Amino acid sequence: SRPCCIEALLAEAAEPGTPARPCPCPLPSGDTALSRLVRRLLSARRSLDLCLFSFSCPQLARAVQLLHRRGVRVRVVTDAQYMGMHGSQIGRLRHAGIQVRHDQHSGYMHHKFAIVDRRMLITGSLNWTTQAIQSNRENVLVVEDAEYVKAFQDEFERIWEEYDPANYRFF
Amino acid sequence: SRPCCIEALLAEAAEPGTPARPCPCPLPSGDTALSRLVRRLLSARRSLDLCLFSFSCPQLARAVQLLHRRGVRVRVVTDAQYMGMHGSQIGRLRHAGIQVRHDQHSGYMHHKFAIVDRRMLITGSLNWTTQAIQSNRENVLVVEDAEYVKAFQDEFERIWEEYDPANYRFF
Hints:
The structure is a homodimer.
Chain A lengths: L6 H8 L18 H10 L4 E6 L5 H12 L3 E6 L11 H6 L3 E4 L9 E5 L3 E5 L5 H6 L4 E4 L2 H17 L9
Parallel strand pairs in A: 1-2, 2-3
Antiparallel strand pairs in A: 1-4, 4-5, 5-6
């Protein structure tokens, strides 16, 4: 989608009920692909499981940190080669106290999915980068069918255990 | 999936009814993620629409060429920056007479989906490269729900028209 402002969305999620002050920035704040994604993430009440090849979009990182502060159990799995790239938000999430695990293979951990409250699967071609959101042709599927959600949740749990730091072999 | 041999699958699709000679190569030829993907592609009878960021896997290119020779209408949309990369199969498909169109933007055409007979959607994180198939953690969803198939088919038709060479601006 085009560059857009999601400050009002984040402010409302941070302090529900308080009318959000309009953001003074010149970017449009209407309905965009990014705002729809953020709304779905912010609907999390209990858990958010993220399995993301690359995560460098600061706005999405703020939404994730906000959920963490709100008490939602956030777990992140990411790719070892990409998590240290310039602009990666992974360090910021770790500093905020969010649990992050990564692969230790030469291949990529190339998934790009999120599961909200073990109920809603958000998956597709989209890496969580500003370039992908603003410039690429991408698809994002939002699915609540239990059959699909379970397949991805099972894969998440498998990877989460496999990438447990206790299993690291490079120490 | 692990490296595997799909010669028997391709031979059977090329000459249905003829018992395939066992391939003398040492690779396993059992049920793998790649063989399951190839089987679904080879089930095409009328059309195959491919919208792929990168396509360098020679085995998948052979399956696509086989369908083209069998009279299936194959259309390919791909990314301009990646189609000329070392190992890309796009030139080979064009030489075989398959219609290929590409974007002309700085952003990526980052989709990775296929639609078989306007009926079955195959989508996910998987680029059609040997590295992705053999070494990465990837997901591929196979969906026949009309609602999902239609959304992707509509996007395909939109992109197909938008990337019509008659619209190129760089001549």
